[in-house]
C-alpha cells in the first residue's frame, strides 16, 4: 500500500508531512513502516506525555471500551465525574466542562468569561486581551484570540472583541485595559510561538491588576498542562490561581479530550443549555485521562524538574546552540536552521519538533534515563 500516494490523493492538503509513517509505538520509541526505530522527543506534539502503549492507560481504556463507548451528556457518567474531581483537586479550581480539543476548551473559556461579565455587568463588557505571539487554536474565535497577524489574513470576518499586547510589558497591558475588558488570556510558556516562558514578575503584576478590576485571568495550559513543565500545571510555578484554565494535549495521552476548568468566581456561570458538546467527556477518553493523571505524581514531576536542569545545561554546552528556552520538558533550542536539524535528527532516529525558528523538544515525562541520554547524544552529534 502506498501511504504517501493515497494521502496526496485523499487527504486535504493542510499538512506538510515529514517523510515517515509511524505504525507502532512503545514507551519513548516509535517504529516506522520499514521497522526503523526512533526515540520520540516530540510526543505527538506534547500529547503522549507518558509514552506509547502505556500499560495502565491501555488497561483502563480497554476496560471502558468493553463496558460502554459513548452515552452522550444527557446522562450521568462515572469516568467523567471521577476525572472532573481529580482535575479540581489537583488545580484548586471548582468545576470542569469537557471538550474534545484545545481549541474547543478555549472556546468554552471565552464563552464563560463573556457570560460571567454579562451576568454581572451587562452587555458591553466583553473584550478579551491576549498576548502578541500567542497561539490559542484554529477555530474562527480562537484564531481571533491568537495574537499573530499571520493567522488573521484569510477567513474574514473574525470574531470581534480581541486586542493584543506585548508579553512581559505591564504598562502596555495597563493602557490596553478599558471598561469593556472582561478577561486576559495567555499561555505561561508560549508554545507554538517559540517555547518562551513568561516572566514571573510580569504575571504577578498582571494578576494583581486583573484582580483589582474583576478582569478574569484565563490561562491556556493546553500545551503546558499535565506535567509538561515539571509541575502538574505551569501556573503552580507562577504562584497564583487562574480564574479559568484550559488544557488538552497531554490530558488523554493520545485520546482526544480537552477541559475548561472554572474557578470560584465562575463555578455557577455555565447554566443549563448555555454550552454543550456531544462527544465532550466521552467515557473512553475520560478513563484514559484518569489513568494518565494517576501516573503524573509528585515523584515523576520531581524527576522531570531535576532532569530538565541537566538537559538545559547539556544543550547549552553544544557549539551550534545559540540559546535554550522553556520550562521542564518543554524546551526550545535556538539553532541556525531548525528544518535541517529536524531532518538530520530524523535520519539518525530521533523525532523532534520545531516552533518558529527553534527546535522544540516535548520529551516523554517518564522517559528512561538511558533513552534520554541516547536522544541527547544524537543531538550532540548534530549540534556540537
Ligand atoms: C495546541 C494548542 C491549542 C490548540 O489545540 P487543538 O487541540 O489543536 O485544538 C491551543 N492552545 C495552545 C497553547 C496549544 O498549544
Question: What descriptive keywords fit this protein?
Answer:
384 residues, alpha/beta, seven-stranded mixed sheet, four-stranded mixed sheet, 18% strand, binds pyridoxal-5'-phosphate
Task: Tell me about this structure.
With 384 residues, this protein is an alpha/beta fold. The chain is 37% helix and 18% strand. It is built from twelve helices and 17 strands. The protein has helices at residues 3-10, 43-46, 55-67, 78-91, 102-121, 140-145, 170-176, 200-212, 283-295, 298-316, 338-347, 369-383; strands spanning 22-26, 29-32, 37-40, 95-99, 127-131, 162-165, 181-186, 189-190, 196-197, 216-220, 244-247, 258-262, 323-327, 330-334, 350-351, 353-355, 358-362. The protein has a seven-stranded mixed β-sheet, with helices on both faces. The protein is globular. The two termini are 39 Å apart. Pyridoxal-5'-phosphate binds at residues 101-103, 106, 135-137, 187, 191-192, 220, 222-223, 248-249.
How would you summarize the topology of this molecule?
Blueprint (H helix, E strand, L loop, with lengths): L2 H8 L11 E5 L2 E4 L4 E4 L2 H4 L8 H13 L10 H14 L3 E5 L2 H20 L5 E5 L8 H6 L16 E4 L4 H7 L4 E6 L2 E2 L5 E2 L2 H13 L3 E5 L23 E4 L10 E5 L20 H13 L2 H19 L6 E5 L2 E5 L3 H10 L2 E2 L1 E3 L2 E5 L6 H15 L1
Parallel strand pairs: 3-15, 5-6, 5-7, 7-10, 10-11
Antiparallel strand pairs: 1-2, 2-3, 4-12, 8-9, 11-12, 13-14, 14-17, 16-17
The protein binds pyridoxal-5'-phosphate.
Pyridoxal-5'-phosphate (PLP) binds next to helix 5.
Strand sequence of the main sheet, in spatial order? 4-12-11-10-7-5-6
Ions, cofactors and other ligands present here are: pyridoxal-5'-phosphate
Instruction: Give the helix tally.
Output: 12
Residue stretches low in confidence (pLDDT < 50, at least 5 long) are none
Strand residues, percent: 15-25%
The major pleated sheet works out as: 7 strands, mixed
Based on secondary structure, the structural category is: alpha/beta
Supply Rg: 21 Å
Mean pLDDT, rounded to whole units? 98
The total beta strand count reads 17
> Secondary-structure element order, as H and E?
HEEEHHHEHEHEHEEEHEEEHHEEHEEEH
- Estimate the global geometry from the Cα principal axes: globular
